[in-house]
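Work package 3, deliverable 3.1, input record:
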Amino acid sequence: MSELVQAHLDHKRSWYDFHYCYPVISRRSKGVSLGVNLNPNKACNFDCVYCEVDRVNPPRRKDVDLDQLEREMAALMDLVVSGELYQVAPFDSARPEQRRLNDIAFSGDGEPTMAKEFAECVARLARLKAAKGLHDCKLVLISDATLLQAPGVIKGLEILMANQGEVWAKLDGGTEAHYREVNRSRVPFAKILDNLVATARRWPITIQTLFLEWRGQGPSALEVDAYIERLRELLTGGGRLEGIQIYTVARATPEPEARPLKAALLDAVAAKVRQALPALPVEVFYGPDDPGHV
Ligand code: SF4
């Protein structure tokens, strides 16, 4: 048994003493996902009403030390490959089909592409997984899409997509008003849509959409129609979509008015999307999934 696993057995929060990397069993990934937090400073240019990142307590540290990050990731990769990870909770209850390394996910306490180290980090982790022979392990960027056309980010995306990369980009509705209300960003909605289509023209992307009950209301029929229209525009604009992931609030949020949308309503939205865009794969997730950036 490695020192790392023994340390975890002795002290349950051993993984969490890592500063940048963390393992999760991810239903969206259908396996083990090794998360990378490039935002220990909790920086984000969205302020989603449903954000689960703890912004009350000050961050443990604000800097990104890529050497330490790489060491942490190498240690986690070794634990997954050796199977030692599955000796400790909650990984010991993973189903057999979940006991596989699916991806490294850039998904932390903020927007990963805001970190100036983003491209360098992608390059390092691509090299690391190649050196360990983990050729099937994906590199997944989970992003709010605000910076997808920034030159430094494109540099990172080019490396990512050359190394089993996937982009999971957030689009939580179809109108500027809904975006302002739910995502509370100063970045114009039109900029998000422009970034999505520009990126999707170059590489197929996955759209992630969180629908919730906000102030006692689920998304209106008009909002869902507008959302479908934005998806349609992405496709007619030459963008390619791998699929859509629809999900809802999974844990307590700092905003008590942000609540999970009932499963039946989530299903109804998904059914409407499927009916309007039958060629597009639509998946629905109802409960807790990856921690951090949601
Ligand atoms: S949910 Fe993600 S995009 Fe929204 S504020 Fe939190 S970290 Fe930023």
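Residues 6-14, 290-294 have pLDDT under 50 and may be disordered.
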